[in-house]
Each structure stands twice: as structure tokens, then as C-alpha cells.
Specification:
two-stranded antiparallel ribbon
Length: 246
């Protein structure tokens, strides 16, 4: 009950006097035979079962769809390789061309620094992946293992071939993404080793490191039976008993 200047009035009348819109709201019909449930209206106004994931999907900030996301992040990706290739797509690696903007008269003249792999070209994303003569040699020696022998060494050409098939679970799609990510990772590792230590590997040794890493990952996977799969297993010298499952 609520008390006004003219005596006592009922709570319902008092609430309606404060909020006239209540007149337009129908009285809900309760079904005593059913239990109460929580529901949620999603971003499109559709009613769905309440869950923390549905709430987060409605409230989260949405950015622009990135076309290369499936090339970087996929179930069989090697985490450190995936993170590294993400940095390449974002162009966040600390190459010399990126560091020039920080050069404020230091003792090191960044204009004189060059690629530590070939000693000729610039230390930049485009050069390292994979237009440097060292990187190029490794790329040419292993690209056929992912059926990419017709793809040039240019990063844009490689991604233009991989991105359209990156949603596929086929053996060549997964192998191509694993191979490019592993090569990029080891090229960057070799670049840093030569800059900061006396350790050096020949293109052949780097090729073996990339092959060994990808082969080990492929050995833990199962493939569907097909002629392409048999060819892939032969290329990687993997047992054909893997040609099972989904």
C-alpha cells in the first residue's frame, strides 16, 4: 500500500499513476506446469537459450573480418609458428626498415644495415619472406612438398594461393599452411642467429629443419583416403597406414 495526501491508495494504482505505460503491457499468463527458464535476445533480436557465450557474442566489440585468419589459426597449427606468422601479417616484426623511425642519431646507422642472410638486400618483411636469395633457395627446395611448385617466392603470391583454400581440411591445405609458417619461423630464427650470435646454417640445413618439423606434425595426423593423400604421404615419406580416419 502507498499513502498520499488524500489517504491510502492501492499499490497498483500508485504504480500506474507513476508509469502510465503499464496500461499497455499485457498481464503475462503463467503456466504452473512449466519451470522458469532464462532466455536471451541476441544481436539480431532473436530469442535463444541464455549462456555466457551468447551474451559475450552479443556484447563484444566486432572488428572487420580478416581474410587470412584461417591461414594463421587452425586446429593443426604449431602455436609458436602461428603467432609468428600473425606478426608477419600485421607487419610487426622488428626489421630494420621498421626501426628506422626510431633512429634518432644513435651510434648505429640503420641506413647501412642490410639483410644478415644474403648481405645484399634490405632487412624488411618483403625481402625476408622470401625474396632474399637465401630464403628463396630454401623456398624453391621445399615448395613442391605442398603442391606449390608453381607459386613464386613473393609473399602476396603465396598467401593468394593459400587463403582461398585455408578453410579446407584437405591434406594439401593443412600441409601448405604448416610449411609456409615453419619456413617463415626458421628464416626469422636464422636471421636473428646471424645478427646476434656466430651460429649459421646453410640453406640445406634450414630446409632439413623445416621438413623435420612439418613431417613430425603430419605424422601425428590422420588423413582421409584419396589418391592425393597417398601422393602427399609419399612426398613426406610417411607410412601409408596414416591414410585412415577423418
Amino acid at each position: 500500500m502507498a499513502r498520499g495526501m488524500h489517504g491510502t491508495i492501492c499499490s497498483r494504482c500508485y504504480m500506474i499513476s507513476l508509469f502510465p505505460v503499464l496500461y499497455d503491457i499485457p498481464v503475462p499468463t503463467l503456466n504452473l506446469n512449466e519451470s522458469d527458464v532464462l532466455v536471451w535476445h541476441d544481436i539480431n533480436g532473436n530469442e535463444s537459450s541464455f549462456s555466457s557465450s551468447s551474451v559475450w557474442d552479443t556484447l563484444r566489440k566486432r572488428g572487420e573480418l580478416i581474410p587470412w585468419v584461417n591461414m594463421v589459426w587452425f586446429p593443426h597449427a604449431i602455436p609458436r609458428h602461428a603467432f609468428h606468422i600473425w606478426l608477419i601479417f600485421k607487419r610487426k616484426l622488428k626489421t630494420h626498415d621498421k626501426m628506422k623511425v626510431w633512429d634518432a642519431g644513435s651510434a648505429t646507422n640503420l641506413n647501412l644495415l642490410c639483410c644478415s642472410l644474403c648481405k645484399k638486400g634490405p632487412d624488411s618483411h618483403d625481402h625476408l619472406f622470401f625474396e632474399c636469395s637465401y630464403s628463396l633457395q630454401v623456398w624453391y627446395s621445399i615448395r613442391h612438398l605442398a603442391n606449390m611448385q608453381h607459386i613464386s617466392e613473393r609473399w602476396d603470391d603465396i598467401t593468394a594461393w593459400l587463403i582461398p583454400i585455408s578453410k579446407s581440411k584437405s591434406g594439401y591445405s593443412v600441409t601448405g599452411r604448416l610449411l609456409v609458417a615453419a619456413l617463415a619461423y626458421y628464416i626469422w630464427q636464422e636471421r636473428n642467429n646471424r645478427m646476434f650470435t656466430n651460429l649459421e646454417r646453410t640453406p640445406g640445413q634450414l630446409k632439413e629443419a623445416v621438413e623435420s618439423t612439418v613431417r613430425l606434425k603430419l605424422a601425428s595426423m590422420k588423413f582421409k583416403q584419396s589418391q592425393k593423400t597417398l601422393r602427399l604421404l609419399e612426398l613426406w615419406k610417411l607410412p601409408k597406414e596414416q591414410d585412415k580416419g577423418g
